[in-house]
Design a protein that fits this description.
Blueprint (H helix, E strand, L loop, with lengths): L6 E10 L5 E6 L11 E6 L2 E12 L4 E6 L5 H5 L5 E5 L9 H5 L8 E4 L4 E9 L6 E5 L5 E5 L5 E5 L4 E4 L22
Parallel strand pairs: 7-12
Antiparallel strand pairs: 1-2, 1-6, 2-5, 3-4, 3-6, 4-5, 7-8, 8-9, 9-10, 11-12
Length: 188
């Protein structure tokens, strides 16, 4: 049985493409430049199932088309619509940088610390939809905050301990607080 620890999510099958069982899939990584894959893994009813690849090609930089062995009609292909798509980690080159593989989502689960070692929180998501990448962080107090993931703020990244030490500008963390917590003219 394949476990979640053995796989890397690369995207999602979106819908059938044509009538011969071909499927369109959206992908989040350019792993295809590095490895040749004999099969993709799909999550079906909570179970990770390998599907051997007959052929795949790319429609553009975000959408691929795949034909699985044994899936020969649009009706069979439709059963795989909206299914998460994975690859086995065993196909990844050992010297491959995990960020090249997983993209910015590699940092989800990292603890963010100040230079003094104080915990800011845990990265729960990375918003890289614009040039200004943001770490979405859950603080120890349960608040959700955003911090710019800019090189100038990052002091050290420790992949082994899954921590990122940051030197943030004074007051940056205050921007994430509720308006009720900010001082007003009446408080002075």
């Amino acid at each position: 049985m394949i476990t979640k620890e053995e796989v890397l999510k690369i995207g999602k099958i979106t819908k059938p493409h044509g009538l011969q069982g071909e499927l369109a899939f959206q992908f989040d990584t350019d792993i295809f430049d590095e490895v040749e894959l004999p099969y993709f893994i799909c999550e079906m009813d909570g179970i990770l199932v390998p599907f051997f690849i007959e052929d795949y090609r790319f429609k553009n930089d975000e959408i691929g088309l795949v034909k699985f062995e044994g899936i020969d009609s649009d009706v069979e292909a439709k059963e795989l619509s909206n299914v998460e798509l994975y690859i086995s980690r065993k196909f990844l080159p050992e010297d491959m940088d995990p960020i090249d593989v997983e993209g910015s989502s590699f940092y989800v689960g990292f603890q963010v610390l100040t230079e003094d070692g104080d915990e800011i929180g845990e990265i729960t998501a990375v918003d890289d939809s614009t040039d200004n990448v943001l770490f979405e962080i859950s603080t120890p107090s349960g608040d959700d905050i955003l911090i710019p993931a800019q090189d100038e703020f990052i002091v050290e990244i420790d992949d082994d301990n899954r921590t990122i030490t940051m030197d943030l500008p004074e007051g940056l963390l205050l921007l994430n607080t509720e308006d009720d917590d900010l001082p007003t003219d009446e408080d002075e």
